[in-house]
# Entry
Amino acid sequence: MPVPGLTRRRILFGALAALALLATLALAAWLLPQQVLCVENGPTQADIIVVLGGGSNERPLRAAELFEQNAAPRILLTGAGDNDGNRRLLLRHGVPPNAIQQEPNSKTTRENALFTIPLLRQEGAHRVILVTSWYHSRRALNCFRHYAPDLQFYSHPAYYAYRRSEWTPQGIRNRIRAEYIKTLGYWLYYGVCPL
# Structure
């Protein structure tokens, strides 16, 4: 028969250990967001590049760079609001008009995936490079993989404001903080595992 005091001590010790582990993980996530949030898959050949909307022009510029390196022969822009501006930027950087496709209705990362995946399948794409901001790359990659496990997705993010010296209190720091909250929300609401 267990001793009541011993059992309470074990429970308390276990709870304190779990709390300490959680605090350590939270501190590591805050101090090392590049290592936690950013996913870069290295050189990849794909059927298409998908550029998620948002950012500060760094996403279409990264896609144009990958296109020029022959990483993929086509680019699909996804996201409401900035598709036309991103298209103009791609054209200015040498991407031909017939290599650009648009999905202009999605407003969230989840919708980017849900609205884009049918287009990818329709085009016969199997290998897809995702381009987004570095701090958004893990959630975006996990979201697309969650909704289309039959396709191969690779992350090649843009590195605007990657160095800590480029962070500002109102800018990238807030985006990093929001990304952690959104990652947790996507896990809890949609089952998109962050690991």
Q: What stands out?
A: The two ends are 40 Å apart (CA to CA).
